[in-house]
Design brief:
The chain is about 40% helix and about 20% strand.
Length: about 350
Protein backbone atom coordinates (compact mmCIF):
# COMPACT_ATOMS: atom_id res chain seq x y z
CA UNK A 1 0.00 0.00 0.00
CA UNK A 2 3.07 2.21 0.23
CA UNK A 3 3.09 5.88 -0.21
CA UNK A 4 3.02 5.92 -3.99
CA UNK A 5 -0.59 5.08 -3.85
CA UNK A 6 -3.07 3.62 -6.14
CA UNK A 7 -5.57 5.29 -8.30
CA UNK A 8 -8.46 4.87 -10.72
CA UNK A 9 -10.85 1.96 -10.54
CA UNK A 10 -13.57 3.55 -12.67
CA UNK A 11 -11.76 3.80 -15.98
CA UNK A 12 -12.85 0.39 -17.24
CA UNK A 13 -12.54 1.36 -20.89
CA UNK A 14 -8.95 2.46 -20.32
CA UNK A 15 -8.32 -0.78 -18.43
CA UNK A 16 -9.51 -2.84 -21.39
CA UNK A 17 -7.05 -1.08 -23.66
CA UNK A 18 -4.20 -1.54 -21.22
CA UNK A 19 -4.94 -5.24 -20.85
CA UNK A 20 -4.54 -5.67 -24.58
CA UNK A 21 -1.19 -3.88 -24.45
CA UNK A 22 0.35 -5.30 -21.29
CA UNK A 23 -1.01 -8.83 -20.85
CA UNK A 24 1.94 -11.16 -20.79
CA UNK A 25 1.64 -14.57 -22.37
CA UNK A 26 4.45 -16.94 -23.13
CA UNK A 27 5.65 -19.97 -21.26
CA UNK A 28 6.80 -18.31 -18.03
CA UNK A 29 3.41 -17.76 -16.42
CA UNK A 30 0.88 -19.15 -18.83
CA UNK A 31 2.34 -22.48 -19.80
CA UNK A 32 0.14 -24.52 -17.50
CA UNK A 33 3.23 -26.36 -16.28
CA UNK A 34 3.32 -27.01 -12.55
CA UNK A 35 7.12 -27.21 -12.63
CA UNK A 36 7.68 -23.94 -14.50
CA UNK A 37 10.89 -22.25 -13.38
CA UNK A 38 9.33 -18.81 -12.98
CA UNK A 39 6.28 -17.42 -11.21
CA UNK A 40 4.71 -14.04 -11.97
CA UNK A 41 3.32 -11.64 -9.39
CA UNK A 42 0.89 -9.03 -10.72
CA UNK A 43 0.61 -5.98 -8.51
CA UNK A 44 0.05 -2.25 -8.28
CA UNK A 45 2.99 0.10 -8.69
CA UNK A 46 3.70 0.30 -4.95
CA UNK A 47 4.87 -3.30 -4.52
CA UNK A 48 8.46 -3.44 -3.30
CA UNK A 49 10.71 -6.00 -1.61
CA UNK A 50 14.39 -6.03 -0.64
CA UNK A 51 16.55 -7.73 -3.26
CA UNK A 52 18.21 -10.05 -0.78
CA UNK A 53 14.85 -11.16 0.65
CA UNK A 54 13.51 -11.96 -2.81
CA UNK A 55 16.71 -13.76 -3.80
CA UNK A 56 16.49 -15.86 -0.66
CA UNK A 57 13.00 -16.99 -1.63
CA UNK A 58 14.11 -17.75 -5.18
CA UNK A 59 17.04 -19.80 -3.92
CA UNK A 60 14.91 -21.78 -1.47
CA UNK A 61 11.97 -22.35 -3.81
CA UNK A 62 13.76 -22.78 -7.12
CA UNK A 63 11.48 -20.23 -8.80
CA UNK A 64 12.47 -16.99 -10.46
CA UNK A 65 9.97 -14.28 -9.51
CA UNK A 66 8.77 -11.86 -12.16
CA UNK A 67 6.94 -8.80 -10.85
CA UNK A 68 4.48 -7.13 -13.21
CA UNK A 69 3.55 -3.70 -11.85
CA UNK A 70 0.28 -2.93 -13.52
CA UNK A 71 -0.57 0.65 -12.59
CA UNK A 72 -2.50 1.95 -9.62
CA UNK A 73 -4.52 -0.44 -7.45
CA UNK A 74 -7.94 0.14 -8.96
CA UNK A 75 -6.68 -0.02 -12.52
CA UNK A 76 -4.68 -3.16 -11.73
CA UNK A 77 -7.76 -4.87 -10.26
CA UNK A 78 -9.81 -3.85 -13.31
CA UNK A 79 -7.26 -5.33 -15.69
CA UNK A 80 -6.98 -8.53 -13.66
CA UNK A 81 -10.76 -8.99 -13.79
CA UNK A 82 -10.90 -8.25 -17.51
CA UNK A 83 -8.08 -10.69 -18.28
CA UNK A 84 -9.33 -13.41 -15.92
CA UNK A 85 -9.47 -16.12 -18.61
CA UNK A 86 -5.93 -15.36 -19.78
CA UNK A 87 -4.24 -13.89 -16.70
CA UNK A 88 -1.07 -11.87 -16.81
CA UNK A 89 0.49 -13.92 -14.05
CA UNK A 90 -0.04 -16.42 -11.27
CA UNK A 91 -0.59 -14.35 -8.12
CA UNK A 92 -2.24 -10.96 -7.73
CA UNK A 93 -1.26 -8.71 -4.83
CA UNK A 94 -2.81 -5.39 -3.87
CA UNK A 95 -6.58 -5.68 -3.86
CA UNK A 96 -7.72 -3.92 -0.70
CA UNK A 97 -10.88 -4.02 1.39
CA UNK A 98 -12.43 -1.15 -0.59
CA UNK A 99 -12.32 -3.22 -3.81
CA UNK A 100 -12.25 -6.80 -2.52
CA UNK A 101 -15.86 -7.61 -3.38
CA UNK A 102 -15.28 -6.75 -7.00
CA UNK A 103 -12.44 -9.26 -7.29
CA UNK A 104 -14.29 -12.01 -5.41
CA UNK A 105 -17.60 -11.50 -7.21
CA UNK A 106 -15.83 -11.82 -10.55
CA UNK A 107 -14.15 -15.10 -9.61
CA UNK A 108 -10.65 -13.66 -9.84
CA UNK A 109 -9.08 -16.08 -7.34
CA UNK A 110 -8.98 -19.81 -6.65
CA UNK A 111 -8.85 -21.14 -3.09
CA UNK A 112 -5.56 -21.70 -1.33
CA UNK A 113 -4.81 -21.63 2.40
CA UNK A 114 -1.24 -20.49 2.96
CA UNK A 115 1.11 -22.29 5.29
CA UNK A 116 0.89 -20.74 8.73
CA UNK A 117 -2.48 -19.14 8.02
CA UNK A 118 -3.37 -19.58 11.69
CA UNK A 119 -0.64 -17.05 12.56
CA UNK A 120 -2.33 -14.26 10.59
CA UNK A 121 -4.18 -11.97 12.97
CA UNK A 122 -7.89 -12.89 12.78
CA UNK A 123 -9.13 -9.31 12.42
CA UNK A 124 -7.58 -9.14 8.95
CA UNK A 125 -9.14 -12.29 7.50
CA UNK A 126 -11.96 -11.56 5.10
CA UNK A 127 -13.03 -14.72 3.25
CA UNK A 128 -13.96 -17.18 5.98
CA UNK A 129 -13.14 -20.79 5.17
CA UNK A 130 -13.00 -20.21 1.41
CA UNK A 131 -9.41 -18.92 1.47
CA UNK A 132 -9.61 -17.16 -1.88
CA UNK A 133 -7.48 -14.30 -0.58
CA UNK A 134 -4.71 -14.01 1.99
CA UNK A 135 -4.22 -10.83 4.07
CA UNK A 136 -0.74 -9.39 3.49
CA UNK A 137 -0.61 -5.94 5.06
CA UNK A 138 -2.61 -3.21 6.72
CA UNK A 139 -2.35 0.55 6.97
CA UNK A 140 -4.38 3.58 7.91
CA UNK A 141 -5.51 6.36 5.60
CA UNK A 142 -5.31 9.51 7.71
CA UNK A 143 -4.95 13.28 7.42
CA UNK A 144 -1.29 14.35 7.77
CA UNK A 145 -0.28 17.83 8.87
CA UNK A 146 2.72 20.11 8.39
CA UNK A 147 4.18 20.61 11.87
CA UNK A 148 6.08 23.78 10.98
CA UNK A 149 3.02 25.50 9.55
CA UNK A 150 0.95 24.96 12.67
CA UNK A 151 3.84 25.90 14.98
CA UNK A 152 4.44 29.12 13.05
CA UNK A 153 0.74 30.00 13.15
CA UNK A 154 0.49 29.02 16.83
CA UNK A 155 -2.50 26.90 15.81
CA UNK A 156 -3.16 23.42 17.17
CA UNK A 157 -3.32 20.87 14.34
CA UNK A 158 -6.66 19.12 13.85
CA UNK A 159 -7.26 15.84 15.64
CA UNK A 160 -10.60 14.64 14.27
CA UNK A 161 -13.00 14.67 11.33
CA UNK A 162 -15.03 17.32 13.16
CA UNK A 163 -12.00 19.59 13.46
CA UNK A 164 -11.44 19.62 9.69
CA UNK A 165 -14.76 21.41 9.14
CA UNK A 166 -14.01 24.20 11.63
CA UNK A 167 -13.27 27.77 10.46
CA UNK A 168 -9.74 27.64 11.90
CA UNK A 169 -8.81 25.14 9.18
CA UNK A 170 -10.51 26.82 6.24
CA UNK A 171 -8.67 26.35 2.91
CA UNK A 172 -6.01 24.13 4.50
CA UNK A 173 -7.01 20.59 3.45
CA UNK A 174 -6.29 18.82 0.18
CA UNK A 175 -7.74 15.38 -0.52
CA UNK A 176 -7.88 12.98 -3.44
CA UNK A 177 -10.82 12.35 -5.72
CA UNK A 178 -12.84 9.45 -4.30
CA UNK A 179 -13.68 8.25 -7.81
CA UNK A 180 -10.05 8.05 -8.97
CA UNK A 181 -7.97 7.42 -5.87
CA UNK A 182 -7.67 4.67 -3.28
CA UNK A 183 -6.84 7.03 -0.37
CA UNK A 184 -9.53 9.41 -1.59
CA UNK A 185 -12.07 6.59 -1.48
CA UNK A 186 -10.77 5.46 1.90
CA UNK A 187 -11.24 8.95 3.31
CA UNK A 188 -14.80 9.03 1.98
CA UNK A 189 -15.50 5.65 3.56
CA UNK A 190 -14.01 6.89 6.81
CA UNK A 191 -16.49 9.76 6.89
CA UNK A 192 -19.36 7.39 6.04
CA UNK A 193 -18.32 5.10 8.89
CA UNK A 194 -18.03 8.05 11.26
CA UNK A 195 -21.23 9.90 10.41
CA UNK A 196 -23.41 7.09 9.06
CA UNK A 197 -25.43 6.65 5.89
CA UNK A 198 -27.48 9.74 6.62
CA UNK A 199 -24.76 12.02 7.92
CA UNK A 200 -21.70 11.85 5.70
CA UNK A 201 -23.18 14.02 2.96
CA UNK A 202 -23.86 16.82 5.41
CA UNK A 203 -20.30 16.53 6.64
CA UNK A 204 -18.92 16.87 3.10
CA UNK A 205 -21.07 19.95 2.56
CA UNK A 206 -19.29 21.47 5.55
CA UNK A 207 -15.89 20.45 4.19
CA UNK A 208 -16.69 21.97 0.82
CA UNK A 209 -17.83 25.20 2.46
CA UNK A 210 -14.59 25.15 4.44
CA UNK A 211 -12.50 25.16 1.28
CA UNK A 212 -11.38 21.54 0.86
CA UNK A 213 -9.38 21.10 -2.34
CA UNK A 214 -9.78 17.93 -4.41
CA UNK A 215 -7.11 16.63 -6.81
CA UNK A 216 -6.98 13.45 -8.87
CA UNK A 217 -4.54 11.33 -6.90
CA UNK A 218 -2.16 10.88 -3.98
CA UNK A 219 0.98 11.86 -5.89
CA UNK A 220 -0.40 15.29 -6.72
CA UNK A 221 -1.95 15.84 -3.31
CA UNK A 222 1.07 14.79 -1.25
CA UNK A 223 4.04 15.77 -3.42
CA UNK A 224 2.67 18.94 -5.01
CA UNK A 225 -0.05 20.47 -2.86
CA UNK A 226 1.02 19.51 0.67
CA UNK A 227 3.45 21.96 2.27
CA UNK A 228 4.86 19.43 4.73
CA UNK A 229 6.38 16.84 2.36
CA UNK A 230 9.79 17.15 0.74
CA UNK A 231 8.15 17.13 -2.69
CA UNK A 232 5.55 19.66 -1.63
CA UNK A 233 8.19 22.03 -0.34
CA UNK A 234 9.97 21.92 -3.71
CA UNK A 235 6.66 22.46 -5.50
CA UNK A 236 5.77 25.29 -3.08
CA UNK A 237 2.60 23.54 -1.99
CA UNK A 238 0.39 25.69 0.21
CA UNK A 239 -1.92 23.14 1.87
CA UNK A 240 -0.70 22.09 5.34
CA UNK A 241 -3.27 19.26 5.61
CA UNK A 242 -3.42 16.27 3.25
CA UNK A 243 -5.11 12.89 3.11
CA UNK A 244 -2.26 10.37 3.18
CA UNK A 245 -1.21 7.53 5.51
CA UNK A 246 -0.28 7.04 9.14
CA UNK A 247 3.02 5.66 7.84
CA UNK A 248 3.91 8.76 5.81
CA UNK A 249 5.98 10.52 8.54
CA UNK A 250 8.65 7.75 8.63
CA UNK A 251 9.06 8.17 4.87
CA UNK A 252 9.91 11.83 5.33
CA UNK A 253 12.62 10.83 7.81
CA UNK A 254 14.03 7.87 5.89
CA UNK A 255 14.70 9.73 2.66
CA UNK A 256 15.80 13.07 4.12
CA UNK A 257 19.48 14.03 3.99
CA UNK A 258 20.54 14.56 6.68
CA UNK A 259 17.90 12.62 8.58
CA UNK A 260 15.98 14.79 11.02
CA UNK A 261 15.55 13.74 14.64
CA UNK A 262 11.82 14.26 14.31
CA UNK A 263 9.44 13.79 11.38
CA UNK A 264 8.33 17.12 9.87
CA UNK A 265 4.78 15.82 9.54
CA UNK A 266 2.23 14.47 11.98
CA UNK A 267 -0.95 12.42 11.83
CA UNK A 268 -4.46 13.40 12.92
CA UNK A 269 -5.34 10.03 14.43
CA UNK A 270 -9.05 10.83 14.66
CA UNK A 271 -9.35 10.94 10.86
CA UNK A 272 -8.22 7.41 9.97
CA UNK A 273 -9.73 4.57 7.96
CA UNK A 274 -8.21 1.07 8.13
CA UNK A 275 -7.06 -0.37 4.80
CA UNK A 276 -6.11 -4.04 4.37
CA UNK A 277 -4.43 -5.49 1.28
CA UNK A 278 -4.78 -9.07 0.07
CA UNK A 279 -3.13 -11.46 -2.36
CA UNK A 280 -4.58 -14.47 -4.13
CA UNK A 281 -3.84 -17.28 -6.57
CA UNK A 282 -5.36 -16.27 -9.90
CA UNK A 283 -8.09 -18.60 -11.09
CA UNK A 284 -6.43 -19.53 -14.36
CA UNK A 285 -2.83 -19.27 -13.22
CA UNK A 286 -0.39 -21.20 -15.39
CA UNK A 287 1.94 -22.06 -12.54
CA UNK A 288 -0.29 -22.88 -9.57
CA UNK A 289 2.47 -24.68 -7.69
CA UNK A 290 4.77 -21.68 -7.94
CA UNK A 291 1.89 -19.35 -7.12
CA UNK A 292 1.19 -21.22 -3.88
CA UNK A 293 4.85 -21.03 -2.91
CA UNK A 294 4.83 -17.29 -3.61
CA UNK A 295 1.72 -16.77 -1.47
CA UNK A 296 3.40 -18.69 1.37
CA UNK A 297 6.33 -16.28 1.02
CA UNK A 298 4.14 -13.15 1.13
CA UNK A 299 2.50 -14.40 4.33
CA UNK A 300 5.79 -15.55 5.87
CA UNK A 301 7.85 -13.81 8.52
CA UNK A 302 10.77 -12.81 6.27
CA UNK A 303 8.60 -10.86 3.85
CA UNK A 304 6.28 -9.56 6.57
CA UNK A 305 9.20 -8.00 8.45
CA UNK A 306 10.70 -6.64 5.23
CA UNK A 307 7.55 -4.74 4.19
CA UNK A 308 7.45 -1.77 6.57
CA UNK A 309 10.44 0.14 5.16
CA UNK A 310 9.73 -0.91 1.57
CA UNK A 311 5.98 -0.34 1.28
CA UNK A 312 5.38 1.51 4.57
CA UNK A 313 2.64 -0.79 5.76
CA UNK A 314 2.07 -2.95 8.82
CA UNK A 315 2.51 -6.73 8.81
CA UNK A 316 -0.54 -8.88 9.52
CA UNK A 317 1.46 -11.83 10.84
CA UNK A 318 1.30 -12.22 14.58
CA UNK A 319 4.78 -11.76 16.05
CA UNK A 320 6.31 -9.95 13.05
CA UNK A 321 8.54 -7.13 14.28
CA UNK A 322 8.50 -3.52 13.10
CA UNK A 323 11.79 -1.65 12.45
CA UNK A 324 12.80 1.05 14.91
CA UNK A 325 12.50 3.92 12.43
CA UNK A 326 8.97 2.85 11.61
CA UNK A 327 7.87 2.69 15.23
CA UNK A 328 9.75 5.82 16.29
CA UNK A 329 8.34 8.14 13.65
CA UNK A 330 5.05 6.44 12.77
CA UNK A 331 1.93 6.41 14.89
CA UNK A 332 -0.31 3.68 16.18
CA UNK A 333 -3.96 4.23 15.37
CA UNK A 334 -5.89 2.51 18.12
CA UNK A 335 -9.42 3.11 16.86
CA UNK A 336 -9.53 3.68 13.10
CA UNK A 337 -12.84 3.76 11.29
CA UNK A 338 -13.64 0.45 9.63
CA UNK A 339 -16.40 -0.92 7.41
CA UNK A 340 -17.54 -4.39 6.48
CA UNK A 341 -16.45 -5.25 2.91
CA UNK A 342 -20.04 -6.20 2.02
CA UNK A 343 -21.29 -2.78 3.04
CA UNK A 344 -18.55 -1.22 0.94
CA UNK A 345 -19.60 -3.39 -1.99
CA UNK A 346 -23.27 -2.47 -1.62
CA UNK A 347 -22.65 1.27 -1.32
CA UNK A 348 -19.37 2.09 -3.05
CA UNK A 349 -20.67 3.13 -6.45
CA UNK A 350 -23.76 5.10 -5.29
CA UNK A 351 -21.69 6.83 -2.62
CA UNK A 352 -19.04 7.80 -5.16
CA UNK A 353 -21.72 9.12 -7.50
CA UNK A 354 -23.33 11.12 -4.71
CA UNK A 355 -19.96 12.41 -3.51
CA UNK A 356 -19.02 13.51 -7.03
CA UNK A 357 -22.26 15.45 -7.46
CA UNK A 358 -21.93 17.00 -4.03
CA UNK A 359 -18.25 17.94 -3.97
CA UNK A 360 -17.09 18.35 -7.56
CA UNK A 361 -20.07 20.11 -9.12
Amino acid sequence: MGTTKKVSFTAVAVGIGLVAVSACGGSDSGSGSSDAKSVTLVSHDSFNVSKDVLKDFEKRSGYTVKVLKDGDAGAAVNKAVLSEDNPQGDVFFGVDNTLLSRALDNGLFQPYEVKGADKIKPEFRADGDRHRVTPVDSGDICVNYDKKYFADKKLAPPKSFDDLARPAYKNLLVTENASTSSPGLGFLLGTAAKYGDGGWQGYWKKLKANGVKVVDGWEQAYNEEFSGSSGGKKAKGDRPLVVSYASSPPVEVLYAKPRPKEAPTGVATGTCFRQVEYAGLLSNAGNTKGGKALLDFLAGKEFQEDMPLNMFVNPVLDGAKLPGLFTEHGVTVDRPETMDPKKIADNREPWIKSWTSLVLK
